[in-house]
Amino acid sequence: MRRIADWLKQADAALSQARDSKKDGHYWASCFFAHQAAEYAAKALLESFGVEARGHSISSLLDKARELGVEITEEIRRKALNLDRHYLQSRYVNTFYSGAPVDYYTLEDAERALVEAEELVGYLKEKIRGS
Questions:
Q1: pTM of the model
Q2: Is residue 2 very low, low, confident or very high in pLDDT (cuts 50, 70, 90)?
Q3: Cβ-based neighbours of 58, under 8 Å, separated by 6 or more
């Protein structure tokens, strides 16, 4: 069963949550949900090519898309690499020597992650086969 629309719906919901979290000052959560939005869009893209994707690395998912012949620019891949940092670090205390993730994330981090996620989601939606 093809779940492209479901992945995209979830990507849009994650972007909305990232925006809300940023507005509420939960910068770590904004970065995490920005990552999630881009991951979901990458999975929608791969699903459109008949590939069920596993894993959480956006850059790895985009590498799979490249193998299928999808044009993924270096700029888009760099943004994916930036967002990949937020999958674990934004949530787990033991990814830092001391303190909690909430201590490390700033408004600037959230703003950058959100812009990158919005650009990635938009770019990947355009690349979905049959759209």
A1: 0.96
A2: confident
A3: 35, 38, 39, 42, 80, 81, 83, 84, 120
- The C-alpha atoms of residue 12 and residue 36 are separated, in whole angstroms, by 10
What is the tens place of the pLDDT at every residue in 82-100?
Answer: 999 999 999 999 999 999 9
Per the structure, the complete domain to which residue 62 belongs is given by 4-127
Per residue, the 3-state secondary structure of 59-85, as one string, reads: HHHHHHHHHCCCCCCHHHHHHHHHHHC
Query: How far from each other are the two terminal CA atoms of the chain, in whole angstroms?
Result: 17
Which helix (H) or strand (E) element contains residue 92? none
pLDDT digits (tens, 9 = 90+) for 106-116: 999 999 999 99
Domain count, the chain: 1
What is the token pair recorded at 58? 């956006």
Mean pLDDT of the chain: 96
CATH number at residue 99: 1.20.120.330
Instruction: Residue 130: count other Cβ atoms within 10 Å of its Cβ.
Output: 7
Cα atoms found within 13 Å of the Cα of residue 34, Cβ hemisphere only:
31
